[in-house]
Every structure is written in C-alpha cells, then in structure tokens.
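Notes to self, Hydroxymethylglutaryl-CoA synthase:
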Amino acid sequence: MVGIDKINFYTPNTYIKLEELANYRGVDPDKFTIGIGQSKMSVPPISQDTVSMAANAAYPLLTKNDLNNIDLIVVGTETGVDESKSVASFIHQLLDIHPFAKSVDLKQACYGATAGLMMAVDFVRLHPDKKALVIGSDISRYGLNSSGEVTQGAGAIAMIISSSPSILEIEEVSVSMTKSIFDFWRPNYSKTAIVDGKFSNEAYISFFSELWHEYKNRTARSFEDFSAFCFHLPYTKMGKKALMPLLDAEAPNNKDLLLEHYQLSTTYSRDIGNIYTGSLYLSLMSLLESTLSSLKENQRIGFFSYGSGAVAEIFSGKLVPGFKDALLTKQHDTLLNDRISLSIDSYTDMFNDELAIDSEGNHLFKQDKTDNGVFFFKGVENHQRLYGKNKE
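result:
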C-alpha cells in the first residue's frame, strides 16, 4: 500500500476581496463570486516566490525520520525561478534533507504535481523503506484588469508519499491522455500567460469526458464506486461544468452525494484562487477537512488532473483508517483566517513590484512587512537567488 502519508498547503498572508475588485473594475460582483465561484484571491509579496512557498508548505510536515528517509524530491511547477536550476534543488537545501536524495522539477502546466505524485508512488513501490516529497508550487498571473485577472492566485501544496500512508492509498489503475493544443501557454519571452478561455474550458470538459469513458472501460467502475471526485480547479465552477453532463444518468442519491462533496472540495480554492499545479490537491484537503464531509475510511475518491497544452489523468485513491487524525485542519483555518485584506492600491503596488537587478546581478531587499512565512526570498546577489528563514 503506497500513498499520501501527510499533506499541507501554504498561501501568502495577503489577499484581495474579489467583490471589492469587481466594484473597482466596474463589473457586477456576481460575475466573480457566483459566475466563476471565487471570493478571495491570494496576492504574493515580492518576498514570496515559487521556492519559498514550496518550502513553507513542506516544512511543517517534516520530522527527523522524514528528513533521513526522503530519497526523492519532486516539484511540479510552471512558474519556476530559473531556466536550468530546479526549485527542488533549492528545497533540498532549505529543508536540510540528507544529501543522497534526488531532486527534480516536472513541467506540464497544471499537471506537473500529478506527474510528480505518480513518479513518487512508483519510486516508493520499488523502495518501500523510503519516502518521497512531492510539491506543487505556483504563482498564477494574467495581468491587472485582464480577462483572467480574477482567476489569479498563489500557493503551494506538499505531500509525503510512503508505503504506510496515513491519509490516502493511491490505487494502481489510472488513465492518461495527451493532445498538443494551445488553450493556455506562456512563451519564454512573456511574464504572463496567453489564454484562449473558451477553448480551454471546452478542452478541459472534453478531456474529462473522454478519459472517464476510457477509465470505465478499463476498470468496469462507475460513479457509484466513488464517494467523491476532486478536480483541478482553475476556478471553482470549472470542475462542475465537466462533471454535471456525466451525472445525468446517475441515481439521484449518488448524484447528490457527488455534487455535495464537490462543493466542499472547492472551499479553499474559492478563498485562495488558482494555484496551478497544486490546485487538485488543495481541493482534496478542502474536502477532507470540511466539517460537513461524510467521508469514511475505505471510501474511494476519484481525481481529475488537467494541465493545459494538454495532458490529463484520472486516478483514484482509498481513504485509510484514521485519516482524519493526520489532517492539519486547525492550522489551515488559522492560516486563512489570519490573512491581511489588501486595498486596491496595495494590491496594484504588490502586483507591480518587481526585481530591479543591476548590471552586476544584484538586488537585495528586506522581507515584506506583511509576509509571515517561515521561508522568504531575499533577492539576488551575483545573479544568485537567496532565501532566508525566520525563527519560529
């Protein structure tokens, strides 16, 4: 049995209320809060980047035993900080993991963390006495007053994969699909993504439908074999758009249960925004940590991972006995409830704050006063990114 032993998320300490942003942009707030299903959007200060967020997500999970037995670190990201050096190599040093662990990044839009999870599961199956650390960390940026502005966000998830998981056993059968399309992409020369919104939605829905039918053919399973389905959520209405057409033939009780659990899985994303590679696993935490969830041990959860461009996968997992005891519900409540709400001006300034590197490759700064992360980005010296760690 191999699966998720521990899981955590981190998001920056600052956010903007989308109702206020809508009013400022002259848009009906219902378009944001109901139409796409988002309420708040995390906004990262310059002192929080893909590396620091990843370290902040993983750090609370790690015991001395983990540090000595993690032999693989995989980071899924589409907003890495270097064209060559991996985020995982930074993480290896910041978290003080033993020197003989492999550390790599995987990139395929929002699918990267799932690719990392599958790689980690295979690794632990071959090395059951070892563990793997899987991270998804990203900053979603489309630009101020852009069509995608309201679906931005920032955050990271971290999972420890082991042969004695405390939360979820990952089942062996999964189905993947690849098509080379341009629904969402970011050229190397662009700081923001290019999105064909209508086509992207259509592709997401089509991929789920095709994969589900292939998954059914290979496994002989139906929706009745699942107590919940978690989705990659670029915004919280997206998964429902894909799920609803396939539930028409379902018995009312089962349909209602899946939709109820789907809604619970969207809570964290609604208040954080799109975190790209980590989004699917944020929805898992949202579902499991909800006080309204009726999920029990040995029940099966389905997962739909989608990364534009495009690669997608459907897989499943079973909840293990005592899974609720391994969740960090209180810590997550505190993290979200203690955040600082930004004014429009502060949000604009924070969004526009960029490194001003001189000809020698230097730009150092102090940690943003609103930033309460344990790990933080300090700037660049001699073209090298530097990170700091606060005392706890």
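- The chain has two domains: 3-167+328-389, 169-323.
- The chain has 13 helices and 18 strands.
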